[in-house]
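Notes from the pairing session

We agreed to fold both candidates in a single pass and log them together. This is the raw record for the first candidate, unedited. Please don't reformat it; downstream parsing expects exactly this layout.

Candidate A
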Amino acid sequence: MVSLKESLGKVTIVDFWASWCGPCRKENPNVVAIYKELHSKGLNIIGVSLDKEKSKWTEAIAKDGLTWTHVSNLKFWDEPIAAQYHVESIPATFILDASGKVVAQDLRGPELKAKIIELLAK
């Protein structure tokens, strides 16, 4: 059990992904690099998986080096957290400020890093 409120940093990325999602896996090295660089400055990430099989999910976490908190109910598209965020496709990222308010969505690559740096500077 993970509480989003307890997991909030200065800036939090809620990252919806799955082991079977090619575009998600392609973006993971970028997210790993951002996390390694900015976690000590207040960035937190919570990965929410839309996987069905725990072994494939945990294998992808290990293989891609995703060292942050991960959650999944292993319910594929019926993932209740994804429903709360109205996720209809993945990858889907939501950037939250320290209060938990969504301040940006679905940024990738350099745009994601730039937004995180901007928010951490506040």
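Candidate B (folded immediately after A)
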Amino acid sequence: MSVSCAICAAVEEVGPVPLAATDEVLALCPLCAAGLGGDMTPGPRWRCLADAVWSGEAAVQIAAWRLLDALKAEGWAADLLAQVWLEPEVLALAQAGIGAEAKGIDHRDAHGAVLAQGDTVTLIKDLDVKGAGFTAKRGTAVRGIRLVPDNAAQIEGRVNGQQIVILCQYVKKS
């Protein structure tokens, strides 16, 4: 019986790869292993993540989520990340070591509290959303925020079904 890659189902040159921040080891092809290691070239080959992220195995979900997070600049990957629901423990493992924490950037709310990927924040001011034609009202809860990795003053979140960039100075951690 041949072993196939847990992410893309390739069967040649599959080898064991430890999954960072977990005790799991996955059988991965060289391209998927390199992608998890940070050496990733965006392209259509990663469309296999749409199936892998819904796997019944937590380790495969974690690896697929991390790869999708690395590809979130591509619209399809960001849309898929917004649709995926993982168990809270699995999501916490998937987010471990990803984002601004790894680069030493602190995102802080209006009161100085440190924000983390996946936090829920509340808007403290009405915000006009440019290009979307609506105003995000004060008191609106924004769940599952994403930290902008290279800008400590910005986070991303969904308000009224729109993914928007929000300045940290206009939110408080819930």
